[in-house]
Structure formats: structure tokens, C-alpha cells
Amino acid sequence: MKKYIWPSLKLTLVFIIVCSVLYPLLIAGIAKLAPGGGKGQTVSVDGKVVGYANIGQKFTDDKYFWSRPSAVDYNAAGSAGSNKGPSNPGYLKIVQERMDSFLVHNPGIKKEAIPAELVTASGSGLDPDLSPAGAKVQVKRIAEIRKIDEAKIISLIDKQTEKPLLGIFGPAKVNVLKLNIELDKLK
Q1: Which is nearest to 114 in space by CA: 137, 131, 96, 147?
Q2: Is there a single domain that holds both residue 73 and residue 134?
């Protein structure tokens, strides 16, 4: 048994060094090469940081595109989903309340036309993106409040839409923060 203790201790020490020191340093080094230098991609307007490109934010003003709901109130320190299934009565009540609120703020939209992403939280609770359909269903409300032609706003959504990687991987998506920044630039 003594002949196995020393090799086991050496192996443990090697793995502690590899897993606790070398691997984190490697990942930190790779992150430095990423946009934002491993600190996230900030979005600035007039030199002032207004948010992060990859973390969702809450928009409640009717003149802006609303983000996907968040189970953690957009708190990046507590990323999580609601973990409630579609048969959970509490979850169904929350979804119904979100639909009712959306319909109040978007008159003329039928309940069936509301994309699921606008009434259900994402798995992380921090999704910064909407589908183009999720953005376009809000156009009428925004156009009326801002007194802007709907076609201009739809064109803006089309310009801000990121296509799937290589045309096949993932869905088309629109970053809500960037879309709202560009919306503010429209006259």
C-alpha cells in the first residue's frame, strides 16, 4: 500500500497545478483575445457605456422595443431560468399576465400573434436578443408613439438582424439594446 501513496500524491499535485493554475490561465489568455478583452462587449453611446451586448436589459418604455422577460430581473449575478414547466399553474399565470400586459400596450395585436419569446423567460434569464418576428410585432406601438413611419422601423429591424452562422446554424436574431440605440437615432 505504501508504494501507491507517493505516486497518488504526485498525481494529485500535478492535477491541482493543471486544473487550478494552468487551465484557468489558458482560458484567461484566450479570453483576452476575444472582443472586450474577456470583460464582455460593452455598448457605448457618445462615449458613455449603456450596457453589454451579450446581456439582456429591461426596457419598459413603450417607445422602445421590449426585451424578452427575465426570471432573474436581468441580474447577471444570478443567471437562471424559472425552472417551471408548461403545466405549472403559477407559470401559466405569469405567462398570461405577460400576454395581457403586452396586449394592453400593443392594441390591435391578436393574442395568437404574440411570439412566445415575448411572454416566456429564456433559460439564462439574460437573453439579449429577439427574433425578427418578436421585434416586428412591436413596430406599430413604437411607430405611433415616436411618429415614425412603420416602414422605417421595419427597415431598421432588417438592418439590425444577424443572420444564422453560415446561413444554417442558429436562428436569425436582433440585439434589443443595439436596436433601441439605432431607434433613438431615427428622426
Answers
A1: 137
A2: yes
Domain that holds residue 11: 1-39
3-state secondary structure 120-185: CCCCCCCCCEECHHHHHCCHHHHHHHHCCCHHHHHHHHHHHEECCECCCECCCEEEHHHHHHHHHH
Torsion of Cα atoms, 131 then 132 then 137 then 139, to 10°: 130
Angle at CA of residue 31, ends 25 and 37, nearest 5°: 125
Identity of residue 113? A
Q: What is the pLDDT of residue 135?
A: 94
Please give the model's pTM, rounded to 2 decimal places. Answer: 0.78
- Mean of the pLDDT values across residues 73-81? 79
Starting at the edge strand found earlier in the chain, the sheet holding 129-130 runs: 129-130, 173-175, 161-162
Given a cut of 90, is residue 39 above it in pLDDT?
Answer: no
58's grid cell? 429591461
Read off the C-alpha cell for 2.
505504501
Please report which residue ranges of 18-131 form alpha helices under DSSP H: 23-33, 89-105
Q: Are residues 10 and 94 in the same domain?
A: no
CB atoms inside a 10 Å sphere around CB 102: 20
Domain identity same for 29 and 62: no
Rounded Cα distance, 31 and 40, in Å? 9
Region 137-155 average pLDDT: 94
